[in-house]
Amino acid sequence: xxxxxxxxxxxxxxxxxxxxxxxxxxxxxxxxxxxxxxxxxxxxxxxxxxxxxxxxxxxxxxxxxxxxxxxxxxxxxxxxxxxxxxxxx
Length: 89
Hints:
Elements: H1 2-12, E1 14-16, E2 23-25, E3 36-41, E4 44-49, H2 50-59, E5 66-70, E6 83-87
Antiparallel strand pairs: 1-2, 3-4, 5-6
């Protein structure tokens, strides 16, 4: 239920670039130029990157020592098809 609600929220806060198929984030943007959003984590609100929130909403939790990155290179893209996990050493 929570993931479906988060998916809907993310879709409503993005627009689709018809050329690249990127879902471009239209919500709050951090100083680094990445989208960010507040989500619920075990009932407690926390701020995460919009790309992280999209990964969580569509695929599940992000494993420890992993980062989410956009394969398209667009910092504001939250299209789950453009996201991949990158393992840290």
